[in-house]
Write a structure and sequence with these properties.
single chain; alpha/beta; Uracil-DNA Glycosylase, subunit E; 6 strands; binds uracil
Length: 206
């Protein structure tokens, strides 16, 4: 897919999300938060779900955690527009509770289609819930900052959720150190020959 086709497919997905009433999260949402950024991004960041500010604005990571995410991106010379930022669920769970398993399951095909469309070189998960959807069983305290290539060829980088640093400012240095690894990880991915395409059953795993 070229850039224009990717953009148009992402807009189509966003329109479907805006009309979605498949789970109860639609009842209390102000706006859906499909995700935003560069359709051709090499890196896709995936958070957990929109909070209050995101629900009001329809954009991911625009609250306090988002400000810190912007700082982290800037620390490696990236702007938000260089990356694509999305969430596992596209509507705010009331009171910022964790999304329920069936809400995640219902929303999952949207994220899957976004991943297939953008086809990023690297997927950085933000927080343990996002990580565990892709890499079940890992502990974020051990996995953060260490890239993992799955059998289907996709490379994931588990990262702490930026909100973690809001409650514990000493965490900031850990976030910064993990982000500092991203440019070299991307370079390594780009210089490694692409693995052969996975068989269809495996590509359905995400
Ligand atoms: N936290 C998330 O996981 N996603 C957002 O969009 C905002 C805060």
């Amino acid at each position: 897919m070229n850039s224009a086709e990717k953009k148009s497919e992402l807009e189509k997905i966003a329109a479907e999300i805006a009309a979605c009433t498949s789970c109860k999260l639609c009842e209390q949402r102000t706006k859906t938060v499909p995700g935003a950024g560069n359709p051709d991004a090499e890196i896709l960041f995936i958070g957990e779900g929109p909070g209050r500010d995101e629900d009001l604005q329809g954009e991911p990571f625009v609250g306090a955690a988002g400000k810190f995410l912007n700082e982290l991106l800037a620390s490696i010379g990236l702007k938000r527009e260089d990356a694509f930022i999305a969430n596992v669920v596209k509507c705010r769970p009331p009171g910022n509770r964790d999304p329920e398993p069936e809400e995640v399951e219902t929303c999952w095909p949207f994220l899957q289609r976004q991943i297939e469309t953008i086809n990023p070189k690297l997927i950085a998960t933000l927080g343990r819930h996002s990580m565990n959807r892709f890499l079940p069983g890992l502990k974020i305290s051990e996995a953060h900052g260490n890239p993992k290539r799955r059998k289907d060829g996709r490379v994931f980088l588990p990262l702490y959720h930026p909100a973690a640093a809001l409650y514990s400012p000493s965490q900031k240095t850990v976030h910064l150190a993990d982000f500092a690894k991203i440019p070299a990880i991307l370079e390594k991915i780009k210089s490694t020959p692409e693995p052969p395409p996975p068989p269809p059953e495996q590509s359905k795993l995400i």
